[in-house]
Amino acid sequence: MSLTCAAPAPARGTAARAAYGRLSRVTTSPGGVPLVPEAEEPVGADALLARVAAGDEDAFARLYDLLASGVFGTCLAVLRDRDHAAEVTQEVMVEVWRTATRFDAGRGSARTWALTLAHRRAVDRVRAVQSQRTRDQRVLDEQGERPFDVVAEEVEDSMDRERVRHCLEGLTPTQHEAVVLAYYGGRTYREVAEQLAAPLTTVKTRIRDGLLRLRDCLGVVAA
Amino acid sequence: MSTDDLTRGDGSDARDLIGAYALDAVDDVERRAVERLVADDPEAAGELAGLRATAALLGSAVATPPPLELRAGVLDAIRRVPQAGATGTTARTGPAAAPAAVPAAVPPIPSFAVPDAGTTATPAPATPAPATPAPATAPGTVTDLSTRRPRRTTTWLAIAATAVGAAAIPSALAIQQAQEGRRAELQAQAVADLLADPRAEVVRADVEGGGTAVGVLAGDRALFTATGLDEPGAGQEYQLWVIRDGEALPDAVMQDEAGAVQAVTDGYQAGDALAVTVEPASGSQSPTSEPVVVLAPVAS
């Protein structure tokens, strides 16, 4: 059964302004340390998301323009298929719209939120649609490659790309491999361990240590 | 599978999985373990926030313009999708809209969102009351969200009245179901007493998000049991409410054990309904999410 009532109209007017003011204060509060370096546009996306949470469709269109490339690129890296990636991008952006009201700005930037969502949905999709056999075959196909480089060649240049490439090169080869297979390959750490014939605990550690090193290299400010 | 055995047996801590979690490289069981950890441990939550932002930069690094036509499609789609927790047209009333176009199979990212009832079909906190604190907090801290979530004055009477899923069912079957759901610590005598009450009514209903609830509603007490429930989510538990005259009276916070909960309440009076919401584990004084199930007496 459904206990929820029919859809009311989105918030408008004073409620919208109130929500905007409230969220704006939060994002600029002294404790509001941005998680992403200021070279990005976290303030822009965060402020827009606050307006989106108040039902502002124009703000959503601008937020789409800021985030869609990152969302689509993330999905494409994992799914390797533009049609699938476009579908998941649409799902993700609609979910951004729908759940903007729940976004907790204290826990990360709007961009991080959207890209986290994108990666999660892409991984869900890839795990749902690909049989283990197919995935094993893909693993075989990719052995010896460095998937990030393959992915990166397919995309346009960006500042983030260069920074990330630089910092990925700062990882040990085994950290690099584990992080890239897990993130861009959409694999579980267990699958990564199988592929690399490495113990599970070792792979967990490589992923965590690799990410921590990346975090420091990229200048991500931890909360 | 041997790898599963390895994982379960290696004594690994959820903390070791934070990195893999940030890359979505864990299974569902591990995912929940990490979510429980970060709900209780600010240090772990801080580490996750940093690693997640790092992972997002891995995504930004491969940013690719999507097909141009996607923009129009998305902008068109959102006009038909109500926002979770969007305010109704009538001020401070009414539960918010359920998602229309988004499948309910899409769970939120828990540690990013203000905790909710655990199912996507359940809306987020709706109407910000005038004195509502902001639904956000300083980074890296995990605080009791119940104190700063928007308080809603949900029209509980209306909800109870529309508990159409609750239906009287044949007693023998109902009793069997109730007993299936009851726990060892529940006094069998209490159940027997309840069922001996001539006013007792047995009702059952499906639980939003999965599971079945069975209640025995008697004259001055009631038994609530449910089985097959989803986990309530990190730092959250199922809480029972007695719905009387449209008001939700706080009752027991029920420990979820293997998807089953139960409680006997003396706060019940004939004609009341029972409802269950997902609340912070400490319990709430008024509901902060939509009920996942309502059991209303059918006869009265």
Give the averaged pLDDT of chain A, no decimals: 75
Greatest contact between two chains = A-B, 114 and 104 residues
Reported for the largest beta sheet of chain A, the result is: none
Q: Major sheet of chain B, described briefly?
A: 5 strands, antiparallel
Number of strand segments of chain B: 9
Supply the number of structural domains of chain A: 2
Question: How many helix segments of chain A?
Answer: 11
CATH-defined topology of the largest domain in chain A: Rna Polymerase Sigma Factor, Chain: A
* Strand and helix order of chain B: HHHHHHEHHEEEEEEEE
Molecular structure report:
The complex is a heterodimer of chains A (223) and B (300). Chain A has 11 helices and no strands. Chain A is mainly α. Chain A folds into 2 domains: 19-27 and 36-129, Rna Polymerase Sigma Factor, Chain: A (Orthogonal Bundle); 132-223, Arc Repressor Mutant, subunit A, CATH 1.10.10. The longest helix of chain A has 23 residues, at 57-79. Chain A is globular and about 50 Å long. With 300 residues, chain B is an alpha+beta fold. Chain B is 28% helix and 18% strand. Chain B has helices at residues 2-9, 18-22, 28-40, 42-60, 68-79, 156-161, 171-181, 188-196, and strands at 167-168, 201-206, 212-217, 222-227, 236-244, 247-254, 261-265, 273-280, 293-295. In chain B, the strands form 2 sheets. Chain B has a 5-stranded antiparallel β-sheet, covered by helices on one side. Residues 1-12, 86-105, 115-177 and 179-187 of chain B have low confidence and may be disordered. Classes of the chains: A mainly alpha (223), B alpha+beta (300). The interface between A and B is large, with 114 and 104 residues.
